[in-house]
Amino acid sequence: MDAQPQRLARRRSRSARPIHASANPSADRAPAAPPAQEVLPPRPRRPTGHVFRLERVRGSSWWAKYRLPDGTQVKRKIGPVWEGRGRPPTGFFTKRLAEAWLRDTLDDVYRAWSSGRAGLSTRDRRPGATLGAPGSLGVTFAQAAAEFLRFSAEERECKPSTLRAYRNMIDVYLIPAFGSMDLQDVTVQEIERWRSQLRSVRGGGPLSNKSKNHLLVLLHGIFRRAVKLHGLEANPVDSVDRYRVRSSGDIQVFSPEEIWSLVGAAASETDAAIFLTAAFTGLRRGELLGLRWRDVDYAGATIRVRASYAAGYLTTPKSGKVRSVPMAPDVASALETLRAREQFTGEDDFVFSGQAGIPLDGDALSKRYEDALQRAGLRRLRFHDLRHTFGTRMIAKADIRRVQEWMGHADIQTTMKYLHYAPHSEDAQLVAQAFGTGRTEGDPPRLT
Q1: Percent of the chain at pLDDT above 70?
Q2: For residues 122 and 83, is the Cβ–Cβ distance under 8 A?
Q3: Residue 231: inside a domain
Q4: What is the pLDDT of residue 382?
Q5: 372 touches 391 (CB < 8 A)
Q6: CATH no. for residue 299?
Q7: Neighbouring-strand partners of residue 304
Q8: Can you give the residue range of the structural domain that contains 65?
Q9: Contact predicate 166/225, CB 8 Å
């Protein structure tokens, strides 16, 4: 056989060999690509920011402005500026404390973003937002109330005493009733049922109509904020009627003799000066505690009301405006005696200060005032009635506009409640003339 035919035969033999299928079908496929490595999300950028001081009518305060890792800019109020000497009271900030607050806040933000707890959209990261059930807003009443308090503090800049009152009413009366409920589930019927069962947490008796109305006003404010922020369709409190409140207009006040008895029963020289100044100037308790020595003008015989101190915060007076009040000689003498103390007599020091140089605690002062009433054997009138005493005495001597200015009333209607204390001796003669029948003076009345 030739070599050429032999080579062709060998090729046919090789091509005729059987093909055996593999037991593993995937073995016949192309080798799989190596598994892709898990791609981790990049770590968020560290947030940055700065603090700045803002001057406003109600006083200076520290603010922070910082940027979140997604670029969202945040502006928040830190707290009022402390300009006094020594360690600032609770709630006040020096620049160093404000910067420390910002550092802690930025660290918290970074940790939250790094752990994935800040993965919601910017809108859903608003205070109190959660993912709710289908058809719900995903916001509970407790979260809406917390947002209302934040809004009141940071944007409306309500006074600390107002915020404390809000927080107390929310914690005591609103959260136990509606706290865990979705906003949409708080209906008019639920509110009506709740207010019909309101009881005082102190004595267990029913709340007054005035107190119930205060709660309704607060509840309305919380839902009004929720309508704007969370998309709630309507405010359910709009359909709830307020209770009728009747006021007799009667005011309980002290006589001059009772004022001096109270001053004599004071536990200290400082308390005696406070009680006397309150009755003779009409200053509110917070305004008395916020008084500095530079506000006392001996030459001009006036006291300038520039600030108010309550709940550890120094703010502006209730009206938001500075005013001047006449200083009687007795008050000037009492304050001169008080300034003879060994310390805290500088122009920026508080007139009625404690051992640390900060204003006295208002609640403790009220307690000592009640003890002084008891020692003097006087009626249990409120500390605020010292202010009413000033108003009722001065309306008899000055015109209503001056009394309004001295007392710092924003509305003259508030001052008008003192008008019935103003003497009008000529009015009796007018009545006599209107009913005159020709009788001469001195004739006995004809009763038969």
Answers
A1: 81
A2: no
A3: yes
A4: 94
A5: no
A6: 1.10.443.10
A7: 324
A8: 48-125
A9: no
Residue 374 lies in a domain: yes
Domain membership flag for residue 339: yes
| d(C-alpha 306, C-alpha 317), whole Å | 6
d(CA 358, CA 351): 10
Spatial distance between the Cα atoms of 378 and 333, rounded to a whole number of angstroms? 25
Per-residue pLDDT tens for 261-310? 999 999 999 999 999 999 999 999 999 999 999 999 999 999 999 999 98
* Pairing of the two strands 73-80 and 296-297: unpaired
Q: How many Cα atoms sit within 13 Å of 48 on the Cβ side?
A: 2
Task: Tell whether 265 and 407 lie within a shared domain.
Answer: yes
232 and 266 part of one domain: no
* Residues 109 and 146 placed together within one structural domain of the fold: no
- 380 located within any domain: yes
d(CA 167, CA 161): 10
What's the whole-model pTM score? 0.62
Show Cβ contacts of residue 82 under 8 Å, excluding neighbours closer than 6 positions: 88, 89, 92, 93, 94, 97
- Closest residue by Cα to residue 51 from 43, 38, 61: 61
CA angle 129-131-134, nearest 5°? 130
- The answer for residues whose C-beta is within 8 angstroms of residue 126's C-beta and 6 or more apart is 147, 229
CATH of the domain at 162: 1.10.150.130
Task: Name residues whose C-beta falls within 8 Å of residue 335's C-beta, 6 or more positions apart in sequence.
Answer: 273, 277, 296, 351
Cα separation, 273 vs 269, in Å, equals 6
Q: Looking at the structure, do residues 264 and 392 belong to the same domain, yes or no?
A: yes
